[in-house]
UniProtKB/TrEMBL annotation:
Superkingdom field: Bacteria
Originating organism: Ectopseudomonas guguanensis
Protein name per UniProt: HD-like signal output (HDOD) domain, no enzymatic activity
Classification of source organism: Bacteria, Pseudomonadati, Pseudomonadota, Gammaproteobacteria, Pseudomonadales
PROSITE patterns to which the protein is assigned, alphabetical: HDOD (PS51833)
InterPro entries: GAF-like_dom_sf, HDOD, RNase_Y/CdgJ
Chain coiled-coil ranges: none
SUPFAM superfamilies, alphabetized: GAF domain-like, HD-domain/PDEase-like
Annotated ranges, domain HDOD: 20-215
Length: 480
């Protein structure tokens, strides 16, 4: 079980020392250069060249049409600085580091949605700043990008506590601020300010969280960018968008219609920027500006969040109950099981892993859910490993259905081994033995990792019921 963090300092220490030290170091160094009037091309190149992967990504972005429309080939960091500018290269380095530091760790839906919103806010803020500031547009971009840094870091690195908060936020009638304080011992806003200060981003912190006053044009541009990115999720014609457009129009001296056109153009640009920075998976999460695409995107958003269907679940349970005494075959039993759990109980990914190869290994036998087909080829796990026991053998040996990722199962966390995490990812899941009489068949696994939503009690009850009925069906088949 990973150590729990509680309180602002505890989280800052954990994120800086254990979770994001490389990202913190790059961000600090890049920001220090911004504050030095005499910073040289070589100093910036030296910071980026410490990491070969970062260097190659910065060069790839520098060679993109977005930053280098003349398409003059850039082969070195120093050449990139000459061609596209010191501030642009620094911004690219920081953005790419943020994406790599967070998205490659735990690409849960909450993190992806927030990072997409952050990129959208950053582009909106920079373009608004272009109307009222002669320089510092890059600083405005970075401040808006890091506006939710604390929350981004938490969803990327929070582990079991992120699962715990996701579960709390999934409850009806929850109070967001209260739930966050309960799990973290601090607020996301305080965590953002604490991280920015510990990374020596004091000026960025003040820009990112200054009061929304027009007396500081840079800070006001950041606030407007952030508010536009949030309002866009409600729709381009929503009251929230109308209110923020009125503020933006007054600030940059445009009509509301012209302000809307600027905002829509910036949203399209944000998609290009996210893709250019190597975060194309975020593009689908930035609100679309084409009317037909807006409708499709809203439908996709609903479809991504698979909802339980009580009628489908009841029918599947009833069918399995009848199969205990009827002459059903194994295939029909398993099809009914997976359909009932996926479409009925609303579990996004389900896998039946059976004992195979002389009962020496678990192999994926049946799967359902987006991106689960690969398990049929890849998922293989030794049945018994004295040197590295795991949760699959534990569940089968103990004849026990387990809800992993809740406090009751924290003592079993070390049984979720590295090979299991590599195959299935991290976060909450259900696991239960499938037993036909006294004969061990295998293990049933289910999660909702695609959206990052927390699993619920009623889903666990359904999962247990399906497991028991399937065992009885298979026992009846074996007796015939």
């Amino acid at each position: 079980m990973s150590e729990r963090s509680h309180g602002l300092q505890s989280w800052i220490d954990r994120l800086n020392q254990a979770e994001l030290p490389a990202l913190a170091a790059v961000v600090q160094d890049l920001q220090r250069l911004a504050q030095q009037d005499s910073a040289s091309v070589q100093q910036l190149a030296d910071v980026l060249l410490r990491d070969a992967a970062l260097t190659s990504k910065v060069l790839r972005v520098g060679n993109s049409v977005y930053y280098n429309p003349s398409q003059e080939t850039i082969k070195t960091i120093s050449r990139a600085i000459v061609l596209i500018g010191f501030d642009n290269v620094r911004l690219i380095g920081l953005s790419v580091s943020l994406i790599d530091g967070l998205l490659t760790r735990a690409p849960r839906e909450q993190l992806q949605e927030l990072l997409a919103r952050s990129f959208h806010a950053a582009v909106q803020a920079r373009n608004i700043a272009g109307y009222v500031l002669s320089k510092h547009a890059e600083e405005v971009f970075i401040a808006a990008l890091l506006h939710h840094l604390g929350e981004l870091a938490f969803w990327g690195c929070g582990g079991e506590q992120a699962d715990e908060l996701a579960a709390a936020l999934a409850q009806p009638g929850f109070e967001t601020e209260e739930a966050v304080r309960e799990v973290l011992g601090t607020s996301f806003r305080q965590l953002t300010q604490g991280l920015l200060k510990s990374w020596n981003l004091g000026e960025t912190a003040s820009l990112a969280h200054a009061g929304a006053s027009q007396h500081d044009p840079a800070a006001y541009a950041v606030q407007l960018g952030v508010r536009i990115s949030e309002a866009a999720l409600q729709g381009w014609e929503s009251p929230e968008m109308e209110a923020v457009l009125a503020k933006m129009a007054a600030f940059v001296d445009l009509s509301p219609e012209e302000a809307l056109q600027q905002v829509l153009a910036s949203a399209d640009e944000a998609v290009k920027v996210a893709s250019t920075f190597g975060a194309s998976k975020l593009c689908r999460l930035i609100p679309n500006t084409d009317p037909e695409q807006i409708r499709l995107q809203q439908e996709e958003r609903k479809a991504r969040l698979l909802q339980p269907d009580l009628l489908v679940m009841q029918q599947a349970l009833q069918d399995l109950g009848l199969m205990v005494s009827a002459r059903a075959d194994v295939g029909l039993v398993l099809d009914t099981l997976l359909k009932g759990l996926h479409r009925g109980a609303g579990l996004e990914r389900v896998m039946l892993a059976v004992l195979a190869d002389g009962q020496s290994r678990f192999r994926a036998k049946r799967v359902i859910g987006d991106k689960s087909e690969q398990w049929l080829q890849d998922f293989v796990l030794p049945a018994e490993q004295a040197e590295q026991p795991h949760i699959f053998s534990y569940a089968l040996r103990n004849r026990e259905a387990i809800w992993m990722g809740v406090p009751a199962s924290y003592n079993l966390a070390e049984l979720v081994t590295q090979p299991i995490r590599r195959s299935l990812g991290s976060g909450m899941f259900f696991i239960a033995p499938i037993v036909a009489g006294s004969r061990e068949i295998g293990v049933l696994y289910a999660d909702s990792r695609l959206s990052g939503r927390a699993l619920r009690h009623e889903q666990f009850v359904a999962f247990q019921r399906f497991t028991q009925l399937t065992g009885r069906c298979l026992e009846a088949i074996s007796k015939r």
